[in-house]
Amino acid sequence: MSGLPHESTYEPTTAVGKWLDARLPIVRMLYAQAVDFPTPRNLNYWWTFGGILTFMLVAQIVTGVVLAMHYQPSAEGAFDSIEAIRRDVNFGWLLRNLHAVGASMFFLAAYVHIFRGLYYGSYKAPREVLWILGVLIFLVMMATAFMGYSLPWGQMSLWGVTVITNLFSSLDSIWKGLGTTIVEWLWGGFSVSGVTLNRFYALHYLLPFVLAGIVGLHLWALHVVGQNSPTGLDIKTSSDAVPFTPFATSKDAAGLFAFLLLFCWFAFFLPDYLGHADNYTPANPMVTPPHIVPEWYFLPFYAILRAIPSKLGGVIAMFSAIAVLLFVPWLDTSRVRSTKYRPVYRWFFWLFAFTCLALGWLGSKPAEAEYVFWARVFTFYYFAHFLIVMPLVGWFETPRKVPGSITEAVLAKNKGAKLAPAKS
Amino acid sequence: MKLVQPRWRIAALALVGALPLLSGAAEAESGHGAAIERQDWTFGGFTGQYDQAQLQRGFQVFQQVCSACHGLKRVKFRNLVQPGGPQFPEESVKALAKAWPYQISGELDDQGNPIDRLPGLPDPIIGPYKNDVQARAAQNGALPPDLSLIVKARNAEQPSAWYNQWLLMLRDIAIGYQEGGADYVYALLTGYHEPPADVHVQEGMNYNVAFPGHQLAMPAPLSKDAFVDYQPESGVKGSLDQNARDVTAFLAWSSDPTLDARKRLGWQVMLYLLITTILLFLVKKKIWSRVEH
User: Fold this and answer.
1) What is the pLDDT of residue B159?
2) Are B152 and A277 in contact (CB under 8 A)?
3) Can you give the pLDDT at residue B35?
4) B15, pLDDT greater than 90
5) CA B59 – CA B86 distance, rounded (Å)
6) How confident is the model at residue A205 (pLDDT cuts 50, 70, 90)?
7) How far apart are CA B247 and CA B254, in angstroms?
8) Does domain B18-257 have CATH number 3.30.1130.10?
9) Could you tell me the residue ranges of all domains in chain B?
10) Rounded to 5 degrees, what angle do the CA atoms A144, A146, A149 make?
């Protein structure tokens, strides 16, 4: 792994260490990337969410593997096996709550991470590949979470899967029979059944490891181009940077534990708050729940889906809402990265954040007159933000004066300070 | 560059603060659908725990009233003995199981013939019907659901204006309130009233203010005149309201039997995390004090 030009200060001291270093310099590599790695000295706490997300992925895999030892992926056994986990497995209730709430917290952290990237322009050159890998991670996360929600095989599991898989049947309007064929292929039959549950379980177990692989690439790309910073400036001289350990490590640890406070608050005191009561009723293909709603983290996209009057159009809009993120590095025409120095774009950024929250709220409401109207308004802005605002504002906006370097920005903030050399 | 004058900011904050009050008026006006009122549950919020005596009374109501039609199959007789629940003495639960009016069926004797047998401690608390078809046949087409998860499987939305909902949400998160299901079950049990003059109640249905659509097949299980009397030494007088509260608490425990242990462990975890977070923050401060940042 190459990387931002920096020396690895690792020197093996023991005989075993020297022996290994000559054969597989893995400790040297880890030391270079996790200890010596130069980190901008002005990172704020929003930058701790990368580490938080890594922790969440590992936590989900660990709790998930243990749950899998007790779970039965069949239409007859799934619901009962989860009740047995809640009631009879030692600390099964804890594992199950950590895993279910963990999915929500994973998405919460991912959304903070994405919005941090959008605010500080972390997608701009040379971080395009890093950003695109992030969008892929988001997409795989969504697939994993969607399949995971089907596993309890409650009413919302069954009907959520039915609604979402049925979206593909809209392809029938392009090519007769195409959509139906795809849907039946996904289901493994002519309706959502235990067969569907079984394959979703297999994929739900597989995808987190795919995720781990893409996260590895994401980190690799990050360590090649280096971290962005709140000023949007890259590290230019050694005075701009501090070594990753102990500086970033200590900050990441504090951020992670603060996040765990929130996570555990939900896991211990509100484990069912983020879920839906209907999923405590076993799946019943004969009874449709009055409102079929996805988990909260899908609600903005669900609102976009329902905002478009045509079924195929809605499906295209929903997938485009994620796909458009792939093009953000080229849609943003601004010369400066950080929104901190963009007096006009800043307003649009917060309008976009509000739009996402509003779409989320509208997604939880029934698709009735005024809700649909507002969903259309906000869906319009969602796309307009990327396709119109980002290119145009970057064009005509006059950015505020950007400091010459990270060092200069830090000195300007702490007037009269002298930069002490950073040593680990 | 100050775009917003300070006094306007204050006015805006005051307005936001007053929104919850305004929304109360909005609710009263909208008037459709009965709002499910919140009750004061001992197990509600982040400090809440079950009241053992209430769970025992609740079981009595379940046994004497609900179990005539409903099962509680995910709760085993042995669960009634465990801590964090009604915690009856083991001997009395053994006797209770032996006297349970419904037998366990589907097992075979040594000759391979199907038998019915009396339940014991490891067996589920079953209802009168062997399957759903039998239940519907006996109940005029309606299916009395198993009550093991009924409290978790229901919820009560607090109707409120759009600008107010996020405040209510933050409040519930802050106090750890997820007892909407219990509020609903209590409202349903106490929600049987004479139908308004303009409502035509269908044959075989009953009017209930809390039920969506207001008409349900279940007749009022408790009433002002027919309720369960408690033992005099319990110190609690039976009434429609008291029965409804107690059986709802018992059903909440049936849905979530590990609540007590969960919240107790939760506090230990929160305390550990809080102290560790503070220490880590101080470590971070100390380390970063070496450099300008």
Assistant:
1) 82
2) yes
3) 77
4) no
5) 8
6) very high
7) 10
8) no
9) 18-257, 261-293
10) 105
In this prediction, residues A254-272 reach a mean pLDDT of 98
* pLDDT for residue B126 is more than 80: yes
Query: d(Cα A352, Cα A117) in Å, to the nearest integer?
Result: 14
Tokens of A316: 């295209």
In whole numbers, what is the pLDDT of chain A averaged over residues? 95
Structural contact between residues B106 and B114, judged by C-beta atoms closer than 8 angstroms: yes
Least CA distance to B165: which residue of chain A?
A361
pLDDT digits (tens, 9 = 90+) for A118-128: 999 999 999 99
In terms of CA atoms, which chain A residue is nearest residue B265?
A268
Could B292 and A270 be called an inter-chain contact, meaning their C-beta atoms sit closer than 8 Å? no
Helix (H, G, I), strand (E, B) or coil at B212: coil
User: CB neighbours of B175 closer than 8 A, spacing ≥ 6?
Assistant: B45, B46
Higher confidence at residue A249 or residue B12?
A: A249
Which of B74, B181, B274 is nearest residue A87 as measured by Cβ atoms?
B74
Interface with A, mutate which of B277, B279, B282, B283 (most A CBs under 10 A) = B277
Please identify which residue in the block is written with the tokens 């181009």: A225
Where in chain A are all domains bearing CATH 1.20.810.10? Answer: 42-226+242-292
Residue matched to tokens 């249905």: B205
Provide the CB-side half-sphere exposure for A48 (13 A, CA). Answer: 18
The CATH number of domain A42-226+242-292, selected from 3.30.160.20, 1.20.810.10, 1.20.1250.20, 3.60.15.10: 1.20.810.10
Residue B14 confidence (pLDDT) above 60: no
**What percent helix, strand, coil does chain B show, rounded to 5?**
45, 10, 45
Task: For residue B140, give the amino acid letter.
Answer: N
Question: Is the pLDDT reported for residue A250 higher than 60?
Answer: yes
The pLDDT score that the predictor gives to residue B18 is 47
- Mean of the pLDDT values across residues A309-330? 97
Q: Per the structure block, which two tokens stand in for A107? A: 């998405």
* Structure tokens belonging to residue A106: 């994973």
User: Which residues of chain B does A95 touch, with a Cβ-Cβ cutoff of 8 Å?
Assistant: none
Cα separation, A291 vs A361, in Å, equals 14
Q: Which residue of A has its CA nearest to B269?
A: A264
Q: Taking the CB of residue B73, how many other CB atoms lie within 10 A of it?
A: 17
- Nearest chain A residue (CA) to B46: A269
Return the structure tokens found at B103. 């037998």
Fill in the DSSP letter of residue A286.
Answer: T
Choice among A419-423, B3-7, B71-75 with the minimum mean pLDDT: B3-7
Distance in angstroms (rounded) separating the CA atoms of residues B173 and B132: 38
Q: Which two tokens stand for residue A203?
A: 């994929």
Task: Give the β-pairing of B206-207 and A241-243.
Answer: unpaired
- B27, pLDDT greater than 50: no
Q: How far apart are CA A102 and CA A79, in angstroms?
A: 20
pLDDT in tens, B222-240: 999 999 999 988 899 999 9
pLDDT at A361: 95
Chain-chain contact of B290 with A268 (C-beta, under 8 angstroms): no
Confirm or reject contact between B283 and chain A (CB < 8 A).
yes
- CA geometry: angle at A171 spanning A167 and A177, to 5°? 115
Take residue A402 and report the two structure tokens written for it: 């950007």
Of the two residues A188 and B31, the one the predictor is more confident about is A188
DSSP assignment of B242-279 equals HHHHHHHHHHHHHH-TTHHHHHHHHHHHHHHHHHHHHH
Does the pLDDT at position B20 exceed 70?
A: no
- List C-alpha distances in Å: B182 to A254, B41, B171, B249: 38, 8, 18, 7
- What's the pTM value of the predicted model, to 2 decimals? 0.93
Looking at the complex, report in whole angstroms how far the Cα of residue A121 sits from the nearest Cα belonging to chain B: 20
